[in-house]
Predict the structure.
Amino acid sequence: KAGVTQTPRYLIKTRGQQVTLSCSPISGHRSVSWYQQTPGQGLQFLFEYFSETQRNKGNFPGRFSGRQFSNSRSEMNVSTLELGDSALYLCASSPNGGGYGYTFGSGTRLTVV
Amino acid sequence: KNEVEQSPQNLTAQEGEFITINCSYSVGISALHWLQQHPGGGIVSLFMLSSGKKKHGRLIATINIQEKHSSLHITASHPRDSAVYICAVSLMDSNYQLIWGAGTKLIIKP
């Protein structure tokens, strides 16, 4: 079966711009969670969506937002990009959260210049 | 203090050696996950544990719930095992996010 698809794989943006990243989960999985990975902070939880509802949110500023569509595909948006937003953004697909295991996408590497 | 602590941070070994990576946590969990990340970023889930021991090929993961400790073992290590190994936990009262350890960078030399 198809894995978790994240697009685009690489992205270069300028400070102040906004960006939208996409994640298509495994068919039948209704939970999508997003993580940011930076060399200094490691992996940090952004938010999790289940059936189009945000169930949990990490400690990120309001510039980071997300949504989930009825087909479980999820997007995350970062507005007013800052240099510190340069990171690998990973999404994880699950039937319904942590007790069911996760499958990860390959990530989107965002560089803000 | 981090909720999930891994050791060692870096590990270099010769091909064939038995490898152990440790993970300790300080919170109530519903599950513990071991994951592998290769250069380039993609993460692969290796194990999900809530008790006991699991084995997959040359990889073995154990968890001791009372001691809040888990270990990942690699037998007969091979250069292709070189990667970052990450321990993460799903919280008991908030099952919808992972709390991550800092990772162990493993290098296996031929």
